[in-house]
Design brief:
Structural class: mainly alpha
Radius of gyration: 31 Å
Largest sheet: 2 strands, antiparallel
CATH topology of the largest domain: MetI-like fold
CATH class of the largest domain: Mainly Alpha
């Protein structure tokens, strides 16, 4: 039985355990008063039985899969000849990878070493035995735990308290995982960024005006010494993001106001889903549209009026990115505006305000916290976009505020720096982590500012 099949079977057993526990609750209830004699509702007894059935088995399943591969590899290596086991750890790791590739069928060569074939067969046999043992153990544990939980059901059992306690523990564990994942990401980026700043001074990175991270891989190789001034990269990011927001914010906000305050139900039911389709289009499609349609159009129009427009410009990338972001602002703003209490509108209209005055003076200010949240989400989406910039704005880190010139962004440079044969401990590769850390700090500052704005207006209109 494969691990995926086993998970499906365990979920089915948990569902059956729920109905078993619920039926047991009805069985132990007082015949005269019925379920009123039970401490908890019958569904809580079923949920408690299902939790007893599923959680221990899934915990065993997770631990088993965590250590299974290591144990099988150690057993396979122990059966290899002495001359292979005496190899260095790196060479032995390559042999183990070849064995795994042979097991998965990735090696299609006609000549296969008999030793490797025997090791692959041994690996497959051990894996099959492990899967069978896991299935038997997990299913036995699930059935046994469900049976024990069902036997313990009685009218005084505090099933609701136990279920809520278990759910609370699960929620705390999920929150803890999310928190520690965030901390791990930040610490890993910070560690690599510190290594970069030990090689390149922080002042050169923050205030340098030239970005050219090309460096020689070896001492005897001719290459640039590298320039790691981040200002051109962040200026390009800000330029494209500003252009995108100039396009997206007015159109998205006005669309939301019209759909929520002026459009009839039939038009809104058609227009809103059509607008939200823009959010489902892959970014590579937007990139093709920007590179093949928008950029040539801007270049041709600039040539007509005598402007020198680059074949890859920040304006083309920003315009298409703004079109992509419109649904984020429009949909979120529409939901927030619709959530404004109707009493505020009625009060303003009752005092003699016109419809437009009510929207400007009452509805929009009351919905401003949610609108700011939507705009912040759109800004984060613009800053993190990569594909459109690569295809429409290029990779050149030019120090310019001219939207008609080619620029690049932080995310594009991160992808570029981490692709290739450069050593991982070189300044070129470590620069990606420094850019990521600085981008994280900038985004954090934007979040703090947005939270302050939201808090201020929320207190005013609550």
């Amino acid at each position: 039985m494969t691990p995926l099949t086993l998970i499906v079977v365990l979920l089915c057993l948990s569902s059956a355990a729920f109905y078993f526990g619920r039926r047991q609750a009805f069985a132990v209830a007082d015949p005269k008063t019925g379920i009123q004699s039970l401490h908890s509702r019958p569904s809580y007894y079923g949920a408690l039985t299902a939790l007893w059935c599923g959680i221990p088995s899934l915990i065993l399943f997770g631990f088993w899969l965590t250590f299974e591969n290591t144990i099988i590899i150690n057993l396979v290596v122990a059966d290899l000849p002495e001359e292979i086991r005496a190899l260095s750890p790196d060479r032995l790791s390559l042999i183990v990878n070849d064995i795994k590739n042979l097991v998965s069928g990735n090696i299609v060569s006609g000549k296969i070493d008999p030793i490797m074939r025997g090791a692959a067969d041994r690996y497959q046999n051990l894996q099959a035995t492990s899967n069978a043992a896991l299935a038997v153990t997990a299913l036995s544990l699930a059935i046994g735990a469900a049976w024990v939980a069902g036997r313990k059901i009685n009218p005084t059992l505090r099933a609701r308290n136990q279920v809520e306690r278990v759910i609370k523990v699960i929620l705390v564990l999920c929150s803890t995982i999310a928190i520690f994942t965030t901390i791990g990401i930040v610490l890993s980026v910070l560690y690599e960024a510190i290594r970069f700043f030990q090689i390149i001074p922080l002042t050169d990175f923050l205030f340098g005006l030239e970005w050219s991270p090309q460096m020689a891989i070896r001492a005897d190789q001719v290459g640039s010494s590298g320039a790691f001034g981040a200002i051109p990269v962040f200026l390009g990011t800000a330029l494209i993001s500003i252009i995108a927001m100039v396009v997206a914010v007015p159109i998205g906000l006005m669309s939301a106001i019209y759909l929520s305050e002026y459009a009839n139900k039939k038009f809104r039911a058609v227009a809103k889903p059509l607008m939200e389709i823009l959010a489902g289009i892959p970014t590579v499609v937007y990139g093709f549209f920007a590179a093949l349609t928008v950029a040539p159009f801007i270049r041709n129009m600039g040539g007509i009026i005598g402007l020198d427009v680059s074949s890859e410009s920040a304006l083309a990338a920003g315009l298409v990115m703004g079109i992509m972001i419109i649904p984020f602002i429009s949909s979120l703003s529409d939901d927030v505006i619709n959530a404004v209490p109707q009493a505020l509108r009625d009060g303003a209209l009752g005092l003699g305000a016109t419809h437009s005055e009510t929207i400007k003076q009452v509805v929009v200010p009351a919905a401003l916290p949610g609108i700011v949240g939507g705009v912040l989400l759109a800004v984060s989406r613009a800053i993190g976009e990569t594909m459109i910039v690569v295809m429409a704005a290029g990779l050149a880190a030019n120090l310019t505020a001219n939207p008609l010139q080619a620029v690049t962004t932080v995310t594009v440079q991160i992808v570029t720096l981490l692709v290739g044969d450069q050593e991982f401990d070189s300044p070129k590769t470590l620069a990606a982590f420094a850019l990521g850390l600085l981008l994280f700090i900038v985004t954090l500052i934007l979040n703090v500012i947005a939270l302050q704005v939201v808090r201020r207006y929320r207190e005013q209109y609550e």
